[in-house]
Amino acid sequence: MRNIYLAGPFFNEQQIALEEQVYEQLKQNETVNQIFRPCKHQDQNAFDSEPWRRNTFLSDINQIRMCDIIVAIVDFLEVDGEVIPDPGTVWELGFGYALGKPLVLVNAQNYQKINLMLERSYTKAVLLDELATLDFINLRPDLTRPLECI
Questions:
Q1: Percentage helix, strand, coil, to 5, in the chain?
Q2: Distance between CA atoms of 85 and 129, rounded to whole angstroms?
Q3: Shortest CA distance to 35 belongs to which of 25, 43, 45, 44?
Q4: Do the beta carbons of residue 114 and residue 82 sit within 8 Å?
Q5: Buried b / exposed e along 33-60 (16+ C-beta atoms within 10 A)
Q6: How far apart are CA 67 and CA 3, in angstroms?
Q7: CATH code, 111
């Protein structure tokens, strides 16, 4: 079973509800062990204080290093039919990619276009209702795909 880092924005009620839906789908998946949710593991210092910012950053980095797979909600903002993900989520994906982690993008709104760098780095893109049955055990990052341009 795999340990998941669940990346995604949680700045408003709609984003929090979507994160909860993704979490519920992942809980149903028999190939998933633990799920780290940054929105539920906040530092206890005053929100947005320097200690909070430092501890949250370091905690998230540590959890990304320890996870097996990053599942990221890419729905944040839509402009001309293209999804514009949350910058923090994009950073988490890039860090995970650099560590060789498989990246699963959750596209709840079924957008047809996404940023080139995300398009070339993800392992699998899924809709929300596919998470409960996705085989996380056999997901492997395709580290050769982005190298085509070198």
A1: 40, 20, 40
A2: 20
A3: 25
A4: yes
A5: eebbbbeeeebeeeeeeeeeeeebeeeb
A6: 5
A7: 3.40.50.450
The confidence score (pLDDT) of residue 54 equals 92
C-alpha separations of 129 from 23, 46, 109, 132, 150 in Å: 11, 36, 11, 7, 36
108 by Cβ neighbours in 10 Å (0-12 / 13-18 / 19+) ranks as middle
For the chain, the domain total comes to 1
Say what the pLDDT of residue 150 is.
Answer: 33
Of 27, 37, 50, give the one whose Cα is nearest residue 6. Answer: 37
pTM for the model stands at: 0.89
Please give the residue range of the domain that contains residue 121.
2-149
d(CA 6, CA 92): 10
